[in-house]
Amino acid sequence: MLYPIYLIGYMGAGKTTVGRMLAEKLGWHFVDLDDAFHEIHGLSPADYIRTYGVEEFRRKEKYVLEDLAELPIEKVIYATGGGYPCWEDNMECLKELGTSFYLRWQPYHLAQRLALTNLKERPLLHGKDAAEILDVIRPQLEARVPYYEQADYIIDAPTAIDGTIDITADEQLADILYNRIINDDD
Ligand code: S3P
C-alpha cells in the first residue's frame, strides 16, 4: 500500500475523528487539511469561502495538499476537506500520491450526524434540523459520489441493527482501516 493515507468523504463522515484515532493506533502523524489550510492562509475554509469564493478556495486547497505531500514523511493520515476530491484532477492526484479511503454513509445518516455537530462553520446548514439538512445535502452528495467512489478503498460505515447511527461507528471505522493497513502485503 502506498503511503500516505487520505481519508475522503462528505462533511460529517468522520474524516477528522477517524483519522485521529487511526493515526494514534498506528503511531503515525495526523493532519487535518482544513486546519492546515487555516494555518497557511490565516482563515478557516468557511471564512475563506465567504471572503474569496469557492473557486479560489479550491485552487488554494489543491496546493495545500500537494505541497504537504512533498514532505519526506510517509506515515501520515490526512483528513481531506469534503469537496477536495471533486475538483479538477484532484482524485487522480490523491491516487498518485498515496492510498485513498472513502468513508461511505447513507445521506440520511450523514444528515443525522451533521445535526449533532456545531454547524456555525457550515452556514448552509446552520439552524436546520436533520430533515432540512438532508434536503440540502442530498443533491450535492449525489454529485460528489462518483468522485468519492474512485477511492482505492470504499469503507461502509457501520449502522446499528435498527438502522440508527451506531455511536461507536467512528471507532469501528478506525479499527477497520487499521486492520486494512497493517494486514496489507503490497
Ligand atoms: C467543504 C468541506 C469542509 C471544508 C470546506 C468545504 C465541502 O471540510 O473543506 O468548508 O465543500 O464539503 P469537511 O468535510 O472536513 O467539513
What is the structure about, briefly put?
By secondary structure, the protein is α/β, with parallel strands linked by helices.
Question: How are the SSEs placed, and which strands pair?
Answer:
Elements: E1 5-8, H1 15-26, E2 29-32, H2 33-41, H3 45-52, H4 54-68, E3 76-79, H5 90-97, E4 99-104, H6 107-115, H7 130-148, E5 153-156, H8 169-182
Parallel strand pairs: 1-3, 1-4, 2-3, 4-5
Helix pairs in contact: 1-8, 2-4, 3-4, 6-7
Shikimate-3-phosphate binds at residues 11, 15, 34, 45-46, 81-83.
Task: Tell me what the structure shows.
By secondary structure, the protein is α/β, with parallel strands linked by helices. It is 51% helix and 12% strand. The protein has helices at residues 15-26, 33-41, 45-52, 54-68, 90-97, 107-115, 130-148, 169-182; strands spanning 5-8, 29-32, 76-79, 99-104, 153-156. A five-stranded parallel sheet has the order 2-3-1-4-5, sandwiched between helices. α1 (15-26) packs across α8, α2 (33-41) crosses α4 (54-68) and α3 packs across α4 (54-68). The longest helix is centred in the last third of the chain and has 19 residues, at 130-148. It starts with a strand and ends with a helix. Shikimate-3-phosphate binds at residues 11, 15, 34, 45-46, 81-83.
